[in-house]
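Batch manifest, entry 17 of 40.
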Amino acid sequence: MPRLLFLWLRVTAAAGALALAASAAGVAAAAAFPMSPAEVAALGPLTPWQVQWLETGGASGVPGLVAPSGPAQGAGAPMQLVTMVSTWNPSGFQATQTVSGSCWTGSIAAPRSGAYRCSVGNGILDPCFAMPGGASVACPSGNPGGEKGTVIDLTQALPAGDTAQPSPEHPWYFTLQGGGACGALTGTRVAADAPYGCLVPATANAPEESLYCTAPAPDGAAYTALCAPLSSRPAPDGAPQLAAGTADKITEMWL
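Output type: structure tokens
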């Protein structure tokens, strides 16, 4: 099944809503919702407004949901989550601060072309992405969809870096269906097979929680990660260890 790389788009106020409805009409005429990934692909090239309409569930109004793949499903069939996968770039990036610094190697968090590991004073920022012209890099903070963070004006030329293409096997940030945001760990890890650290915000019934997750694995039209908190009991050698984990669907990931 081909992977769909969805754009992170924003719909603005009433003018945006009118444009959305107009361009969605062409998609609505081609297929009914919910749609399977194959049916989405069969629509051919879509405008950004049509992509946004699909992402928000079209006529179903359920974000990120399409019909289960495989044989035709009857009414009331369970819906299947589709992970939105985006290749991040600094287009539209807004600097919350601009500083001077340098990058000395490719990114550990995002092992892909155009991503770097950089330093500002005694601090390290990873990943940072080359901006047009190569004189600066953009280092996102928080959810990458916010397109905000630190811009580093480089004091040295960028190094060769990584040449790998972005891959869903190595996202640098993702969000969990059960709540929580996860980023690639670039330092010491509690477990070698848990390269992502996640923060699940507090709710009325549970306090804030830190989790450690495996790399995403394909699960139908979505991706899943196995996540676990730190165990209250150390390992026999006294080192920290993880408690039993649970699988959680990934709603969005950035490469």
